[in-house]
Design brief:
By secondary structure, the protein is an alpha/beta fold. It contains 14 helices and 19 strands. The strands form 5 sheets. Strands 1-11-10-7-6-2-3-18 form an 8-stranded mixed sheet, sandwiched between helices. The chain has a 4-stranded antiparallel sheet with strand order 14-16-19-17. A 3-stranded antiparallel sheet has the order 9-8-15, with no helix packed on it. The longest helix is centred in the last third of the chain and has 19 residues. Bound molecules: pyridoxal-5'-phosphate. The site of pyridoxal-5'-phosphate (PLP) has 14 residues, from helix 5 and helix 6. Pyridoxal-5'-phosphate (PLP) binds next to helix 5 and helix 6.
Length: 402
């Protein structure tokens, strides 16, 4: 259950509360926090060891994809997710592409994908030559386990290697769960639904580093998961990603695929299959190592900011479900209707407050409009995406509070 569920019926669309909300937010930033310049949506903070580690990487001569910082980065990613293994990648999309390949996603397969996520999630499916099968979201914008269950029960047949989508005949190879804005998806139910069909769950934890689900870190809650270290994420490498898993053999396969399938053979450069140059450069790893040291600090500050926002706003927020501790990567308010959302985006941005709408639901993007959708439709995704707005949530604003 979430705050959204408890909040009662949707009110009439009226712009008064939008103006009021804008005023209160403005006074929070300008008066209480004393910030006069533009309030960015998510600006990184480099006040830890970031400069020192990047300099150390430069001084060492190890700037490319081999070197001590890349190994350290992998250890830190494993530690941050409680996973046994982590493999560094150039970004989160590449991590997801490799994660899908590593669990056997092949050209022509279907991969179940929530109707709301960053476009990288579904692009990674397409990069495998596979196609998405879109399923609606729950009240926290994550893959709805009930809708997943009915899709598998009613629209698919068989299980495991022979699980097929009835009307297209395509094999269903995996399901991706996304922790949107840092709030963990209902992984218990998603894992149960998937395991009933021997279907592999891939966790897109790009936004949820540091979030806990029933006391366990996001990223390692299923067979394989991915992280992103893009510039706007909680922890950044400039650009970067990682695949995490508890499966040692799978991790070895993933590393092989990300490093041009190179095989050791004396002085020879030998490669035993077509693979990818996806390994994270050392310079980026150095930056990420310094940032990862501050993960707890970032999460503490973001949670304090989320609490403060809830006290200010008097509107509904996407909030952490029970039994989870969210990193609140991006705070999100839910307005009464799309017209109010547009008004709020306009009013805040005019006053130098960088708010942004939720992503357009993935099945509406031109390249995915013809994709398979579960028969139950994506009404919830359409509704929530049209009313959700992200508020400035960067570590600098958050730090001003704690
Ligand atoms: C950021 C993000 C990605 C992709 O990460 P990049 O590092 O930008 O490639 C994938 N999925 C989700 C949900 C994201 O937010």
């Amino acid at each position: 259950m979430t705050e959204l569920d408890q909040s009662g019926s949707i009110g009439r669309c009226a712009s008064n509360y939008v103006q009021d909300l804008t005023d209160r937010l403005e006074s929070f930033y300008r008066v209480e926090l004393g910030i006069q310049e533009t309030i960015p949506l998510h600006e990184p903070s480099f006040s830890g060891r970031e400069w020192a580690y990047v300099k150390e990487a430069l001084d060492s001569g190890w700037v490319s994809s081999v070197g001590p910082f890349v190994d350290r980065f992998e250890q830190a990613c494993a530690a941050a997710t409680g996973a046994a293994e982590a493999v560094a990648t150039v970004n989160g999309t590449a991590a997801l592409h490799i994660a899908l390949l590593s669990v056997g996603v092949k050209p022509g397969d279907l991969v179940v994908c929530p109707a709301i996520s960053f476009v990288g999630t579904v692009n990674a499916i397409a990069h495998c030559g596979a196609e998405p099968a879109f399923v609606d979201v729950d009240s926290n914008l994550a893959l709805c386990p009930r809708r997943l269950g009915s899709f598998l029960h009613e629209e698919c047949t068989g299980s495991g290697e022979s699980l097929r989508h009835r009307s297209t005949g395509q094999r269903v190879a995996a399901v991706i769960a996304v922790h949107v804005f840092g709030h963990p998806a209902n992984m218990t139910q998603i894992n149960v639904m998937a395991s009933n069909f021997a279907l592999t769950v891939v966790e897109d934890a790009a936004e949820s580093i540091g979030s806990l689900y029933m006391g366990r870190e996001c990223g390692a809650l299923s067979r394989v998961g991915i992280l992103s270290f893009n510039g706007n994420k909680t922890v950044t490498a400039g650009g970067g990603g990682a695949v995490v898993t508890n499966d040692v053999d799978l991790a070895r396969r993933i590393k092989h695929l990300t490093t041009t399938a190179r095989v050791a053979n004396g002085f020879e450069f030998d490669h035993d299959e077509i693979a990818y140059n996806y390994r994270l450069p050392s310079l980026n790893a150095a930056l990420a190592c310094a940032q990862l040291e501050r993960l707890e600090e970032f999460v503490r500050a973001k949670r304090a900011l989320a609490e403060r926002y809830r006290a200010i706003a008097g509107v509904r927020f996407l909030a952490e479900p029970v039994h989870v501790k969210s990193n609140y990567w991006l705070n999100a308010v839910l307005l009464d209707c799309k017209a109010d959302r547009d008004l709020f985006l306009q009013a805040t941005n005019e006053r130098g407050i960088q708010t942004r709408p939720c992503w357009r639901p993935l099945p509406l993007l031109p390249m995915y409009q013809a994709a398979v959708r579960a028969e139950a439709g994506i009404a919830r995704a359409l509704d929530l995406a049209s009313r959700t707005v992200n508020l400035p949530s960067g570590p600098k604003i958050a730090a001003a509070l704690v």
